[in-house]
Amino acid sequence: MNRALRIHGYGGAEVVQLDQVLVPPAAPSEVVVRVRAAGVNPLDWKIRDGLMRDAFPLALPAALGIELAGEVSTIGAGVTAFSPGDRVMGPLPGLGAYADHVAVAASMLTRTPAELDDVRAAAMPVASLTAWQALFDAGELQRGQTVLIHGAAGGVGSFAVQFARRAGARVVCTAQSVNAGYLHALGAHEVIDYRTQSFWTSTGPVDLVIDLVGGATLEHSWQVLGERGRIVSTAAPEITANTPSGKRGVWFQMRPDAAKLGELAALAARGDLSVQVSEIADLAEAGAVIERSKTGHGPGKAIITLT
Ligand SMILES: NC(=O)c1ccc[n+]([C@@H]2O[C@H](COP(=O)([O-])OP(=O)(O)OC[C@H]3O[C@@H](n4cnc5c(N)ncnc54)[C@H](OP(=O)(O)O)[C@@H]3O)[C@@H](O)[C@H]2O)c1
Predict the structure, then answer these.
(1) Could you tell me the distance, in angstroms and rounded to a whole number, from the CA of residue 213 to the centre of ligand 1?
(2) Given this model, what pLDDT does residue 204 score?
(3) Domains of the chain
(4) What is the pTM of this model?
(5) Exposed/middle/buried for 295, CB within 10 Å: 0-12, 13-18, 19+?
(6) Is 103 close to ligand 1, i.e. is its CB under 6 Å away?
């Protein structure tokens, strides 16, 4: 049996359905993963709604889901890094993680440490790699600098707060006040409630803004940048065209990196990195969870399990 959560057109929750599809074969250099858990991302509803249809045209019906954890069931020709039964985690090069069996290039996958369960493993690939790369590759964050993280209580932000604090930065966050205690526990020095405060009048100058929100939040952020500061946005591709003259704005897209994910998973396995899961639901509920994620969710990541 291979259940797959697929969209048959673009639209609201009604276009998502659970289908029976063939178990994929493992092509050369691929493995088939028996998926046990898959992380929910804002990209799920953005794709479902058709917001990405020009950038990423899909052949419909198309399965949703971009990251997974589970165990290898079969290996394709030429695969030496994994054997059937190995526990693995990783982002997908495309879509389709919400399925019982998924074929994926072996190079995308990392072994899941024994101490990390599949639910927490599935919460890590996209969010932890995005946070790390946005802070240190695109953002070049240095010890002693100040970083402002917008959307800090979400999937990416929860990792970014921890990485920035460990790197010796001063960490300022925007989030709802209900999440302030959570963010301080992760390492935030200051939490600004975006619902009641104007961050652009209550903080600055900062060396780096990690924008996980876009829109008006991004627009106001230019005001808080220090002289050599920059904004790295994962939420607003238009930052490239809209960066004011004399300012530095960077659109950032996560790059799969199995080796780095292995390092980050090891941190979590040792207890040196908290992996926050806001909600666990089974595949039959995934469409509803994706719909709810559009309007917000508890701190951390929502996870779909496939038993
Ligand atoms: N470019 C890439 O490679 C890449 C990779 C991963 C993610 N992303 C994008 O990055 C963004 C964040 O992803 P995510 O997975 O962290 O999403 P998420 O888990 O939904 O987190 C977003 C967070 O932003 C908060 N928020 C909403 N409005 C806000 C505002 N005005 N000010 C401050 N915080 C606000 C939300 O809190 P409440 O709603 O609870 O208040 C939520 O905690 C999304 O746009 C996603 O598509 C891009």
Answers:
(1) 5
(2) 81
(3) 3-123+276-305 (3.90.180.10), 127-251 (3.40.50.720)
(4) 0.98
(5) exposed
(6) no
